[in-house]
Amino acid sequence: MEERWxxxxxxxxxxxxxxxxxxxxxxxSYCPLKKVIRQWSDRKKLLYExxxxxxVFVHVSDKNIREVKEVDGVINLVHWLGKPAVIKDEEIEAxxxxxxxxxxxxxxxxxxxxxxxxxxxxxxxxxxxxxxxAIKNNTVRVALPSLGYVMYADLEKSSITKLPS
Length: 165
What we know:
By secondary structure, the chain is of the alpha+beta class. The protein contains three helices and 15 strands.
């Protein structure tokens, strides 16, 4: 059976625990973490918090889905049209690359609208084609449609070229 990426819905604030439990059971999981600096009255501390609240990604075959659901803290797999939603390998790689390249990453939940088709001319997403969700000043928003989120980072507008329609 072919292994694919799926999104797992977890109990609130259980993302890291679920990811660790899955890894202990030899199930490949990925819990994207963002760097956050927290300020207390006496100190600052660098923390790693889940990028997607209540979500962890698993790379399993269809026969191992049941084992994933039995892990403590897992509520269910994310479904699309009545079936577990498959996440593209390219989107998981894009998340990993994005987190490696940028330190202040934020998410914004959006309804993805189809706008201009673009190709990235330079940078870590070079030669990737996608759909522009929004451009404000020097901020380009990169859409990951199957996840229903948009990740954004400050990139120069000159690093994007419009594809012919």
